[in-house]
Amino acid sequence: MADLQEASVTLPSDPASVPAARKYVSNVLTEWGLPGDAEVADTVRLIVSELATNAVQHTLGQSPTFTVGIELAREEQLRIGVTDSHPRYPKRLPAAVQQDNGRGMVIIRWLTAECGGRLSVTPTPEGGKTVWIALPWTGAVRGEVPSPSTSTR
């Protein structure tokens, strides 16, 4: 088994891409040995949904696409990153109880910590950023990455 497995998909910054990102990640992780019905699989799907939603909603039209990258290092650590070309880093918005948005990063940070992981943000050479989560891997690695119907790196 390789020390590092990687997969990625680039999608348009459109609300319809959020479920596509979630399904792609789910399929890759299943191929890599994480049962789809595992509790952590549900958590990862929710995190990916929140990250993809942020990439679509908060780039203010300055990022026509976003990329979801998945890395599994030495069968120990899973990293999932969502990259967009908007330069502004995510921040917690003051979310009133009645407000419908502004809690995404709080949810992502809490779910990631609950799984024993961490969240980070790194700049891209092109001036955008990648929001990463890193989690301990709980699946047995097997198989190859499924081919997405969209472009991959």
In short:
This protein is 29% helix and 26% strand. The chain has 153 residues and is α+β, with helices and mostly antiparallel strands. Residues 143-147 and 149-153 have low confidence and may be disordered.
Supply database-style keywords.
153 residues; alpha+beta; five-stranded antiparallel sheet; 3 helices; 26% strand
Order of helices and strands: EHHEEHEE
- Give the mean pLDDT: 85
Helix content: 25-40%
Give me the count of strands.
5
Major sheet description: 5 strands, antiparallel
Strand content: 25-35%
Largest sheet, spatial ordering of strands = 1-2-3-5-4
Terminal CA distance reads 20 Å
- Shape from CA axes? globular
Low-confidence stretches: 143-147, 149-153
Class of secondary structure makeup: alpha+beta
Radius of gyration: 15 Å
Number of helices: 3
Can you characterise this structure?
- The chain has a five-stranded antiparallel β-sheet with strand order 1-2-3-5-4, covered by helices on one side.
- The protein is of the alpha+beta class.
- The protein has helices spanning 17-31, 39-57, 104-114, and strands at 4-12, 65-73, 77-84, 118-123, 129-136.
- Helix 1 (17-31) packs antiparallel against helix 2 (39-57) and helix 2 runs antiparallel to helix 3.
- The protein has three helices and five strands, in the order E-H-H-E-E-H-E-E.
